[in-house]
Design goal:
Elements: H1 2-23, H2 28-34, H3 38-42, H4 61-72, H5 81-85, H6 90-102, H7 114-127, H8 129-133, H9 151-163, H10 172-177, H11 182-193
Helix pairs in contact: 1-4, 2-6, 4-6, 7-11, 9-11
Length: 196
């Protein structure tokens, strides 16, 4: 199992390195026109108003590219995303990722229970979430921006990592989510959703 995870992680690292080099050639202006269909669900400029749909504005380009790649290659499945990504070319995915990365995230302060936020902060610190997602939860490289996401979306993703219904290529998120109770997940989501 450890050898398999190591091989998968190595393959992912090579794929991400190649994608990172190609990302510099991405065309954000072309990505805007290619992303018109995306904005139906993800909102204008990738600023989602639907609590079940993630915001893409300000996401690291490599993260968006990699998620589209997973949907296209059927490693990640979703009734709305899979049909959209299935025919995408690598250049289209890079352009769309560049466009959303350049967009300013929505500046919306979400009202949450201060006790849940405090409990979620403690859990996040214990799991060292900010070591990968950055101290302000803005994400980096192939790691998601969590700041500005809807609480409901975050709950669903954390539960998915815990149950294995949300793919996790290297096991990091699944390992982090395994010990979390439903209350812990609610607290974590409240804490993360409090960031802009």
């Amino acid at each position: 199992m450890v050898v398999l995870r190591g091989a998968i992680a190595a393959a992912l690292a090579l794929q991400l390195a190649a994608a990172g080099q190609a990302a510099s050639a991405a065309d954000a202006a072309a990505g805007k026109s290619k992303a018109q269909l995306c904005m139906v669900c993800h909102g204008e400029g990738g600023r989602s108003v639907n609590p079940a749909v993630p915001s893409l504005a300000g996401q690291p380009p490599l993260y968006v590219y990699y998620q589209l790649l997973q949907f296209r290659d059927e490693r990640r499945k979703d009734p709305a995303m899979s049909p959209v990504a299935v025919g995408m070319k690598d250049a289209d995915m890079r352009d769309i990722a560049a466009y959303f990365a350049a967009e300013k995230p929505a500046s919306v302060k979400r009202g949450n229970d201060p006790e849940l936020i405090k409990a979620g902060e403690k859990i996040a610190q214990g799991l060292h979430c900010n070591s990968c997602h950055m101290p302000d939860y803005s994400g980096q490289k192939h790691i998601a921006r969590l700041a500005g996401q809807h609480r409901e979306y975050l709950v669903r993703q954390l539960r998915g990592f815990k149950t294995g219904s949300r793919p996790d290529i290297d096991g990091t998120m699944a390992s982090a989510a395994q010990p979390l109770s439903d209350q812990d997940i609610d607290s974590m989501a409240s804490y993360l959703a409090s960031f802009e």
